[in-house]
Write a structure and sequence with these properties.
The protein is of the alpha/beta class. 45% of the residues lie in helices and 15% in strands. The protein is built from 16 helices and 13 strands. The protein has an 8-stranded parallel barrel, surrounded by 6 helices.
């Protein structure tokens, strides 16, 4: 069965968010937000929060970023004792500050031998410290002037250097999300690498059952679908897709929130419903338990900038939530919205989730 995988998102793919999603029935794998390898090796004050592996350590893929090959290899020994599935190399982030630092998609733009040497170094570190770990890379198509055959050759070079899985977001470096992803690149890459036993995961614009079905139809050789932003708006999306696409309902039933058991999540596919207010409040509670106070505001802002798209007056409540300075203020603001708009609170199962 096609895997459903949660993509890495800066300030979002942390343990609080994972716990929120897992209570509905989470993904098959969790990619962490990018871990800056040099900062990790320097034992920065917040690095322990990037190393939290709950609530499902067996599903964790640790994503590393750095401009330095040596620090990426050295980080493997730190991550190995924490368990998980493997290491992912971030070669796809196109944020200007990341690219200018020499990380992210910059690894696709450097001399190939430099990039392949970095991969071989990380692979050697895995064989030494965590031989069961899988090595993967998440990438884009390259710069705007990339050549198709050059892209495939680059990917084959990664595999020759030790990469065992590729996650492809089929857009070029500066292509905006408004432009449709070029899925045929993912399919062609998957066909090309299949004889090697290397899997390709498709990533891009999967946000509901319809878009997932389109991706599966156009990329039938890909081994999985990676979902990122849509999981923030709809934390139940993995359970929804598992049921709608494969007839396998998620891990429904009594949901667990900070503080104990509750029956306010998605209660199943038969007449269940999502309590949208409680889900948002749960996130704020989990954030306080699993993230440091210095991160509260940015993590709240990032989450609610997507989650509020569920609501009738989404722009209004989004603006209010982005201005909330503390978790208590955010909770009070969120509850007040549902006092004004009680019809927005529940999302029934028969509604298209």
């Amino acid at each position: 069965m096609t895997q459903l995988i949660a993509g890495p998102m800066a300030t979002l793919s942390h343990e609080a968010f994972r716990r929120l999603v897992e209570k509905f029935g989470g993904p098959d794998e969790w990619y962490t937000e990018m871990i800056n390898a040099p900062t990790l090796m320097q034992k920065g004050p917040f690095e322990k929060y990037y190393l939290m592996n709950g609530p499902a350590p067996q599903k964790i893929v640790w994503q590393l970023t750095s401009k330095e090959a040596d620090s990426m290899a050295a980080a493997v020994a730190v991550l190995a004792p924490l368990g998980g599935i493997g290491i992912d190399l971030n070669m796809g982030c196109s944020a200007p500050e990341i690219v200018h630092s020499g990380a992210g998609i910059a690894w696709m733009l450097k001399p190939r031998q430099e990039t392949f040497a970095m991969v071989r170094g990380v692979k050697a570190a895995i064989e030494k410290s965590a031989p069961a770990f899988r090595l993967s890379a998440k990438l884009r198509l390259g710069a705007e002037n990339f050549k198709e055959e050059d892209f495939y050759d680059f990917c084959e070079g990664l595999c020759d250097s030790g990469v065992q899985r590729l996650v492809l977001h089929p857009r070029a470096q500066r292509e905006k999300l408004a432009r449709p992803p070029r899925r045929y690149f993912a399919q062609r890459l998957a066909e090309r690498l299949k004889p090697r036993g290397v899997q390709v995961i498709y990533n891009g614009n999967v946000k509901d059952a319809t878009s997932a079905q389109t991706a599966l139809k156009e990329c039938p050789t890909c081994a999985g679908l990676m979902i990122s932003r849509a999981a923030v708006q709809k934390p139940w999306i993995f359970a929804q897709l598992r049921g709608e696409l494969f007839g396998k309902p998620g891990n429904f039933g009594q949901t667990q929130v900070a503080g104990g058991a509750a029956d306010n999540g998605l209660q199943g596919l038969n007449g269940g419903r999502v309590d949208l207010m409680q889900t948002g409040l749960d996130y704020i509670e989990l954030l306080q338990e699993y993230q440091p106070p210095e991160f509260f505001k940015s993590r709240m802002q990032r989450f609610f900038s997507y989650y509020c798209d569920n609501f009738t007056f989404g722009h209004y409540i989004k603006s209010k939530m982005l201005n909330a300075a503390t978790p208590q203020e955010a909770q009070d603001t969120f509850r007040a919205y549902f006092d004004e708009q009680p019809s927005d609170r529940y999302l029934a199962q028969q509604t298209k989730l």
